[in-house]
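Researcher: Let's run the pair from yesterday's discussion. Sequence first, then tokens, for each.
Model: Starting with the first of the pair.
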Amino acid sequence: MAAYFIAQYQITNPALYAEYQQGAGPTLAAHGAELVAFDVAAEAIEGTAPGSQTVIIKFESTEAAHGWYHSAEYQAVVAKRLEATTGYAVISQSMNAG
């Protein structure tokens, strides 16, 4: 079952975030990921979003998403995103009703 990495955040350090993007991009292909959405101006219609940046990445499974997130390659750059942004990220299955 497909799984999605969904991040929603505000960029607080654009230069450091640009470094993160350069390092993170190549890790996606290595894990069979598909960038579904990258929106710098997402609009919250309910509640208060942490920022306008939204990223959705599709993986074959939850295990594949975790494999990417915990890979040595991604862990080498993720601290830059965490330092350069405020917000959250989740992994969500495409259909998990039970």
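Model: Moving on to the second of the pair.
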Amino acid sequence: MRRLKIIIAIICVAHVLGMVPFAVYPTLIPTLQIEWGASNTEIGWVAGIYFGGYLLGVFILVPLTDRIDARAIYLSSMALTVLAALGFAFLNNGVTTASIWRFLQGLGLAGTYMPGLKALVDAVPDRIQSRTVAVYTMCFGVGVAVSFLVAGLLTNYLSWQWNFAASSVGALLAFALALLFLPKSSPLRCDEKFHLLPDLKPVFKNRKAIGFSIAYSVHNMELFVFRSWTVTFLVFAMAERDSNPIANHWNPAFIVACATLLAQPFSVIVNEIAGRLNRVKVILSVMGLAALSGIALGFSSQLPMIIIVALVCLYAILSISDSASISSAVIKSADARLRGTTMAVHTLIGFVGAFIGPIIFGIVLDLAGGSDNPNAWGLAFVAMAILMVIGPVAILKMSNSEPA
């Protein structure tokens, strides 16, 4: 058991390192938007297309973990992550080419995130599966925080091209760790005839799992709006404070990195609470509070920076807190023989929200007056809060409010 725990820890470290390229683009949006002369909608598109690649990868790659070794998928996808980061750095001249490289980065993430989790879940006993899921999914957020931190730090020393290139080193280290330590998985259905596209009908018949997956979609819509747009929001909020020497010491990427890192334990904590209480009620409560905190943040740009930073931290905590609880509910609801495919459908539905959220946010921002308008930011966050209602409705209608 001790050796297994060490392996889990190492793969979690690899997961964090593989995420280093993730937040380079959101960190550099203010610079890239000026250089490309791009609208908020275009910037939102480049942010969202990352998850378009992720969705395609999930649809094709994650179900394959029921049939072939997840480790091979993980290693191939991490290599793609390295190449895509380098491509964005040196073969990129605007929104179109940036979209291609971000799409491939998302494809790489799809082949590492859930396949890595599948390999770990297959290797651990049932009694620690939920905890393994919680810790591993928490590391996604830790990786995001580390990515913001590294990208924000390197912005002071490197051009945006070399910032992206430097991020590929993290993915390369992740590849090496996985090559040495990621357990091989044993497919459960390798005796059946192979099909590239999986049969998803049995999974969609599991209404309880699908209800939680729909909630995961709007959860991700909110979460990745936070991760895609908060640095730019903070740059805007600070723009009118140039004469304030205290405000000049705030670093937007560092704020988001710290808020993201601070938030990560709450996913595990809330998952533990949900396991002891009614999971549905806990998830619904967190989703409601997250929506309200987002609205408060959106209309806070004229408030003192200390209040804005506090709201960023609160929003970061609430927008991540239900992540492990929702994913654990889906896994608990899944047929063991279809766990990989169920996880694929869960991720596929979930990251539709991650794909469209940043795009919708950018569209609303443009329609409401642009990123220089304080009210436009508030209305964009209100739009996200309204869409969040879909999650609770799906859970209540499809899970019958039963504890998961």
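Researcher: Give me one sentence on the second I can quote.
Model: Residues 170 and 303 are 37 Å apart (CA to CA).
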